[in-house]
Structures are given as C-alpha cells and as structure tokens.
Amino acid sequence: MRGLIENIAAALARHGLILRGGFNFADGEEATPGLSGVVAKSVLLVGQAGAAPWPHFLRWREGQPQAIANPLDTWSRQAIGAVAETFGARAVSPSDRPYLPFQQWAMRAEGLRPSPLGILMHPEYGLWHAYRGALLFEDEISVQSAEAAIHLCDACVEKPCMKSCPVDSYSAEGFDYRSCLAHVRGPNGEPCRSEGCLDRNACPYGTAYRYPAEVQAFHMAAFAGL
C-alpha cells in the first residue's frame, strides 16, 4: 500500500507536476496557517522539472476566456488546490499576498542555492525548473530531510550566464529589471522575446530540461506585459 507522499506524487503527476521536497517546521518556528487556521506543522513543495506541465496547461487553457489574467498561475492554483483538497492540506502559491517565503522553503526542502541569475541551481534540472505551489499540513508528516545539493555554479569558471545578455541586465550587483524590460519591449528585443532570456539559455547545465521556445516566449511575454 502506498503512503501519503507516494499518493500525493501520483495525483500531481496527472498534471505534469512533481513534489519538490518538504520539511517539518521546528517547534516555535513562525509558520503559515494550515487549512483550518491552525499553524501548519509540515510543508511539501510542488513544482515542475522542464516543461512537463505545459501540455496539461494548454488543454485547460482551451476552455478558458482568452482575456483571463495570469492563466498559468490560475491553472496551477486549480490543479494544486484539487490535490490539496483530496489530501486535507491547504494549497498556497508563490503569488499569494502577503508573499510567503517560497525561496527559503525551496532551499530548505531541496538543499539548493541560487545561481548568479537568482534562480535556484538544481544538480539535474539546472535552471529549468520552477515551484508552482505548496501543500501545508496541520499534522507532521514523514518527510526525508534534504542534504546540501551539489552547486554546479561553483564548478563553472566561465559563467556564460553573466555574459550573454545584450544589455548586461545581470551583474554582481543583482538584476537590473528596468534595462531588461526596456530591451525586451523595444525594437531590438529579439530573440529574447521569442526564445527567452539569453543569459538563462547560456547556462550549460540541465539542457535536457530546457523549456521549448514556445514556453519561454510565454514567460517572457508575461514578464514584460506584452
């Protein structure tokens, strides 16, 4: 008989989603309320590797109004929310307000560290993964603690991810989103608009999971408000 984690993973897989690790909150740790309002004791991160959810999202999108705002967020909320309801959890999203500490949760759940682009570097998926939500439980569940993952950026000498942007939006000081937006929205915004961020695509790791150009264009359009 399968356990809770395996059953949740199987339910998420029907949407192209995967479990991205989890943990139990420590006693006295400030945590987010669960389904009934009681402070949650456990969290499971939900996300994707590569573009596996994309076909599921497109099928859902066909039945929605074209003018729907933030369609991928909406689909993610519905898909993860349905799984949460089945297993008595509260579903939360990275876009919820006030913002929840998803980046910290993700690093804790999988032992990952940020790349120079700010995206967490995964030892298998590289930069081609995402977190779509989380499941909060009011009871402790059996979750295997994550060990620190190999940080591939430490072994990358050339750092092509810092050298490919035509307007040098990424630097040691951080991400200059204003210059990125101006470029993507401007007359010289190709191929960024149609093929995605050149810095991200320059990363040599996880290329088997790289999002197709269609998916990257979708995300770039959402980022730039196009």
Structure explained in plain terms:
This is 4Fe-4S ferredoxin-type domain-containing protein. The chain is of the alpha+beta class and 226 residues long. The protein folds into 2 domains: 4-151, no CATH class; 156-224, no CATH class. It is 32% helix and 15% strand. The chain contains 8 helices and 8 strands, in the order αββααβαβββββαααα. The protein has helices spanning 4-13, 54-61, 71-86, 102-110, 177-185, 192-195, 198-202, 213-224; strands spanning 18-24, 42-49, 90-92, 113-114, 120-121, 129-137, 170-171, 174-175. Strands 1-2-6-3 form a 4-stranded antiparallel sheet, with helices on both faces. The longest helix has 16 residues, at 71-86. It is globular, with a radius of gyration of 18 Å. The model has no long low-confidence stretch (mean pLDDT 94).
